[in-house]
# Entry
Amino acid sequence: MGRDEMRQGTKRQSYAEVGERVTGILQAAEDSAEQILKEAKGQAEAIVREAERSADARRDAAANEADAMRAEAESTVAKLLAEAETHASMSRAAAEEMSATLDGRLRQMLESARDVTATLELALGTRREGDPYGETLIDALDPDRRY
# Structure
């Protein structure tokens, strides 16, 4: 074996070693890439889980707030309805009391008017004493009726 052959043998061995090193570097790079990809997927899954938890918490908070607002509105409506019913009841009672008072007063006025009419009719001789009035409140209040 000559020097040239030794050099060529050394070169071949050197190339083989370089090839093995390159193969090792490429394999290490591929392994690193797989590890990085695996870690990135894990991180992405964790981010997605956290986003879902956050969205669930926000949805629950919004639902709770909506429920609270609905309950407050229902409470306000119930309170307003109760106040309105109380006011209506008081107004109805006052109106009934006023109606009864007015009815009594009208009956007194009608009775007084009948007494005056009877006295005038007796004085004028158009009525005999002891005749019943024979009329109703509606008859007495009829504006087209003549005595």
Observations:
- The chain has a mean pLDDT of 83.
- Residues 3-141 form one domain.
- Helices lie at 3-124, 137-141.
